[in-house]
Amino acid sequence: MAVSPKQRHIAYRCPDCGEATVGLVGRFALSANMVRLKCSCSSESSLDMNISGDGKIRLSVPCLFCRQNHSYVVSEGLFFEKDRFFLSCPYSGMDIAFIGDEDNVSADLSRTADELSALMKNLEAEELSDIQPQDMTEGEILPDPAVYDTLRFVVKDLEAEGKLHCPCGNGPYDLRFTDGGMQVWCESCGATYDFKATSPTVAEEYLSLDSLTLK
């Protein structure tokens, strides 16, 4: 099915039932109101998104692995113009939301279903809840998600503008937490760059970056 460049498919997996929920988001509807993508099971899980006053799209995505909602900020151009991109859990590194054209989103849901099945088998987990944290809050087990939110926006915005560089020049690029803050790395050549940010205030200082080179 052909989709207008001003529309994008988006999907996530419910942390309660594990099933994928897929929706079609249009620029006009998103500009007019908050869009909520809700799982059809009895849980309260939902993916929420809206365009803020600065023209950035803000998303709150339920995490299959942490059982917490993670916040993300992406540019409107990246959201509606890129054929495929993912939003990942900042702590497990697993993809939890998929945005792009219909075929790519469908393929990524199939891929991650296989990855989830393999993970559960390796951990000898019988139920989805067996791989999720129990009776712990995000503040107790996870670093400040606002640091990840800010630095992911920096990386993805620079990547979309062609201002993120590495020796191979290919990417894709991803983020992970380190003891000193966060690190962006190229999955193809392994080049890295360390953000010395352990608080949202320090992370926001990187918003002024004009370009970034991984080594």
Q: Give the helix level as a range of percent.
A: 25-40%
- Distance from N terminus to C terminus (CA atoms, Å) equals 41 Å
Number of domains: 2
Outline the low-pLDDT stretches. 136-141
Summarize it.
With 215 residues, this protein is α+β, with helices and mostly antiparallel strands. The chain has 2 domains: 130 residues, no CATH class; 68 residues, no CATH class.
What does this structure look like?
The chain has helices at residues 27-32, 76-81, 102-122, 138-141, 145-160, 200-204, and strands at residues 7-13, 20-26, 35-38, 46-51, 56-62, 69-75, 84-88, 95-100, 164-165, 173-178, 181-186, 192-195, 212-213. The protein has 215 residues and is an alpha+beta fold. The protein folds into 2 domains: 7-136, no CATH class; 143-210, no CATH class. Strand 10 (173-178) and strand 11 (181-186) form a beta hairpin. Residues 136-141 have low confidence and may be disordered.
